[in-house]
Amino acid sequence: MKISQSTPCISVIVLMAMMLLCTSHLVSAQEVVPTRGIGLYPGDPNEYFAPSGYIGVCNPSGTHYNIALYRAAWASSTRDYNHTAHLVTDGIIEKADPSILTVSTPVGILPRREAEWTIDGGPFSRNVLMGSSTWLQYDWSGALQVKAANVRLQGMVAYDDKVATRGYALRVQTSDDGEHWQTVGEQVGTGLPGTLLHYKLHSDPNKQEAQDYLPARVLDERIPLQVPVQTQHVRLLLEMEGAAHWDIREVQFLDANLSPVDVLPSTCFSSMWISEGGGEQWLYVDLGISLYICQVNFNWYQAPEQGCVEVSDDAISWRRVADLPENVSTGLSTISIDSLELQARYVRVSMTKAGPAGYYALREMEVLSDLSNGFDPHPEAGLREGRYYLSGGNWQLQRASEVEACGEAIAAPDFHCTGWIPATVPGTVLASYINIGAVPNPNFADNVDQISESFFRSNFWYRDVFDVPQEMLGTQQWLNFDGINWKANVFLNGQNLGSIEGAFQRGRFNVTGLLREKGNHLAVEIMMP
Predict the structure, then answer these.
(1) Which of 407, 454, 510, 516 could share a disulfide with 269, CB 3.0–4.6 Å?
(2) pTM for this prediction
(3) 339-371 pLDDT tens trace
């Protein structure tokens, strides 16, 4: 992003997307080019503008600080890819019920890795259903629901052509309670569905038992519904005598204009960690360094009946320091550990017995101390070769769902960024969270499973406060963006400058007369495609 005038310009490079910039060169066989290691910026250090963290001094007033806020967290399991460990330290206390998708077949509930395969839009993922009469069922909860007028079914069916002579039926059923079903749309024929595949399929999709090859039909069927539906329970009933297996690649829910309806659970954000089942489970927070701890607070959605708090300095050997309170079903529970004079880097809650729900769900976990933590911004790049770069500096970042103000108000001097995190600019939203230690490094081990997909599937606000060298005022000035992904709305000193659309598109705005030497306020809303 650049603000330019006739000759020099103010340049702010803002790259709000995942991108890897690299240069290539020839190396000899003897030359060794090692990596810099996990978590270390791989590029030119002069182009790295992450903030640096610090730990504050003891507060004489006795005020306690939540030193777990925006710290990385890990859990033994997660219900899906949305309700992950990092949400217990995001500072958001969820009040609504969680939004969850459960997908099942006659065999049982599909594991989280397979649950979204037929609604993810991917050309290679699929669910395989065995038999001549089978079904695929979707159950949404919380704020999630389906509003559709048509259902499109894509995939294949392998069949015994000597038996499949009595027609077929593809039915869409809905339910109010997930138990009692009614048919709301169907495609019934006396022949075979779809079109003949030019090659045969194995009779056993896993190629472990039967060795026969069967003819197959390609399915791309649109089933109009009798009336548009709005429901949380949908079942696709597939029936054809002689069918060996149905390979369902995609199920699309369409509105009356045949436009796809997004039914992925990541579209509906709810901030809490949810375990996959009950039994022995754990969740721990990395405070960054060993710190004095006086209290641990939990805000439960589904609390354990039994459990304890443990601490460690290496996340390997754990020491039990307190039991969880009994009879805590929902809401807050507090564990005071002042008398232990405790100091540790990692704090873990271990759960051993689930309540009637059969799983654990934690809205927020707070670790209190009389120390505070914070971040110093990276120095602003500033004036260089006739351009004033706003890389680094006082950039702040917040999820749009947590911001009620409009862009003009955010770009005003009296707006306060309470609860916002320091941003790395240029960089991505995810990079900003990684750089302050709010989420684990996703490039290491299976850390990506600890980061919520739905949290980052959102619009985000960036805000910066900057000064302008006096010598750059008085002539034409332009604000230039060197790359935005995907779309952006831009505001400066209370004024709406316009928008940028398209992946990595540059933007240029005439800001003559809007800039002042001291205290310019810039707000940028980065939007999902």
Answers:
(1) 454
(2) 0.89
(3) 567 899 999 999 999 999 999 999 999 999 988
